[in-house]
Amino acid sequence: MRRSLRQPAIVFPTVVFPLVLLAVNAPGLEEATRLPGFPTDSYLDFAIAVCFLQGALFALTTSGTELAHDVETGFLSRLSLTPLRTVALLLGQVAGAVVVGLVGTVLYVSVGLLVGVSIESGPGGVLVLLALSLLVCLSFAAIGAFMGLRTGSGEAVQAAFPLMFVLFFLSSINLPRELIEVDWFRTIATWNPISYLVEAFRSLIITGWDGTALWRGFAVAIGILVVASLGARSALRHRMERT
Questions:
Q1: Please, which residues have CB within 8 angstroms of residue 147's CB and are 6 or more apart in sequence?
Q2: In this predicted structure, which of 105-109, 137-141, 163-167 has the lowest mean pLDDT?
Q3: How many CB atoms are located within 10 Å of the residue 142 CB?
Q4: Which of 12, 189, 197, 243 is the most buried (most CB within 10 A)?
């Protein structure tokens, strides 16, 4: 955690870049709110949910790059000589990325409230929003840990960033799924787990308490966390055996 927070090059993009994209995209896509069936009359309310996922994406690259750096420098090999358990090691490695993501989440909520975003679920919804964001950051950080351990290369982890960004935009990030008219795009967005994460965030902001959207979002986040954690633990075990 200290290592991550001491590096402005890690903290600054995570907390600022999503807000910059929000400031650019929200005014330019405001006309989308005139589409019949659009869930809100403010595209800012609709778009701010994307910030939470973009912060999680940076958590992925942060944890993966930092862990790959430990592999490259031999620090991970030295840790293998200690009685430290693999679970504790993985949690320690992703903690920095998760804390940076949580700082970003608090900033996104604060800025959103300042510029007029209304969170329909109220104060309780803000707490659930923070909990969901923390869980998503942890899930994505676990993916980064898996990639960092599997490749042992920070460059390889960073190269995956554009691919993940494409996956983000093949979801319901910019439009609700029911308003996507291109069949193949709507099909991909329906199968894309990112859609259910962003819809869970939006439900708290726009709808209020939507039980279906929330359980789907939490289920997807927990599923990603479980699969990525098991993969990272297996990759760490094989990495230790090789070293």
A1: 60, 64, 68, 156, 157, 160
A2: 163-167
A3: 30
A4: 197
